[in-house]
Design goal:
- The complex is a heterodimer of chains A (114) and B (110).
- In chain A, 0% of the residues lie in helices and 52% in strands.
- The radius of gyration of chain A is 13 Å and the shape is globular.
- In chain A, strands 2, 4, 5, 6, 9, 10 and 11 form a seven-stranded mixed sheet that branches. Chain A has a four-stranded antiparallel sheet with strand order 1-3-8-7, with no helix packed on it.
- By secondary structure, chain A is mainly β.
- The model of chain A has no long low-confidence stretch (mean pLDDT 93).
- The mean pLDDT of chain B is 94.
- In chain B, the strands form two sheets. In chain B, strands 2, 4, 5, 9, 10 and 11 form a six-stranded mixed sheet that branches. In chain B, strands 1-3-8-7-6 form a five-stranded antiparallel sheet, with no helix packed on it.
- Chain B is built from no helices and eleven strands.
- In chain B, 37% of the residues are buried.
- Classes of the chains: A mainly beta (114), B mainly beta (110).
- Chain A binds chain B through residues 31, 33, 40-43, 45, 48, 50, 56, 58, 90, 94, 96, 99-108, and chain B through 31-32, 34, 36, 42-46, 49, 51, 88, 90, 92, 95-98, 100-103.
Chain lengths: 114, 110
């Protein structure tokens, strides 16, 4: 099992360019998440998908769009990149347990916007 | 705003000692709590989850939960230099979402 995979690992964009970050999981999880991590800010939720066919905004959704392509794949799109979107992006997935929702993370994408 | 608070550290302990990491949370409705370890430049790795008051042990790790005090802790016994990392505390806020603290950096010196 690969777990959660993300592509690309690194990306440099110019302001105004667009790109899509890809995420896939092979754990048959229903829920998937996109986070960004900035120094001193911790992990902040951008968007999540509780199940195939649904998506919801998290704490910092502005400037991003998502697509839950199928149960395995959840992509994050930056339509017009801004320097403030320079960050490390993590995808995660989880399956609901009886009381808790353990999330498992992918390796991350390090994005720089110049 | 539901929050999870951690001391940013660094917490420095000698090899072989017990490292004690602490976390407080604001949402009394939180039911589940998680500790993640994150090495520099890597992704968070789940190491413990706890949802009942009391202690939960797994190898050298013990998670402690006190819902009355809204307090979660992680004890690492026989600390090793390889335990040096940032430890993130998270709580479940409902709707399958977690809120994370900013992490405590742990340094274990040989």
């Amino acid at each position: 099992n690969a777990g959660v995979t993300q592509t690309p690992k690194f990306q440099v964009l110019k302001t105004g360019q667009s790109m899509t970050l890809q995420c896939a999981q092979d754990m048959n999880h229903n829920s998937m998440y996109w986070y960004r991590q900035d120094p001193g800010m911790g992990l902040r939720l951008i968007y999540y998908s509780a199940s195939e066919g649904t998506t919801d905004k998290g704490e910092v959704p502005n400037g991003y769009n998502v697509s839950r392509l199928n149960k395995r794949e959840f992509s994050l799109r930056l339509e017009s990149a801004a320097p403030s979107q320079t960050s490390v992006y993590f995808c995660a997935s989880s399956e609901a347990g009886p009381m808790f929702y353990e999330q498992y993370f992918g390796p991350g994408t390090r994005l720089t916007v110049t | 705003q539901k929050e999870v608070e951690q001391n940013s550290g660094p917490l420095s302990v000698p090899e072989g000692a017990i490292a004690s990491l602490n976390c407080t949370y604001s949402d009394r409705g939180s039911q589940s709590f998680f500790w993640y370890r994150q090495y520099s430049g890597k992704s968070p790795e789940l190491i413990m989850s706890i949802y009942s008051n009391g202690d939960k042990e797994d190898g050298r790790f013990t998670a402690q939960l006190n819902k009355a005090s809204q307090y979660v802790s992680l004890l690492i016994r026989d600390s090793q230099p390889s335990d040096s990392a940032t430890y993130l505390c998270a709580s479940n806020t409902g709707f399958q979402k977690l809120v994370f603290g900013t992490g405590t950096r742990l340094l274990v010196s040989p």
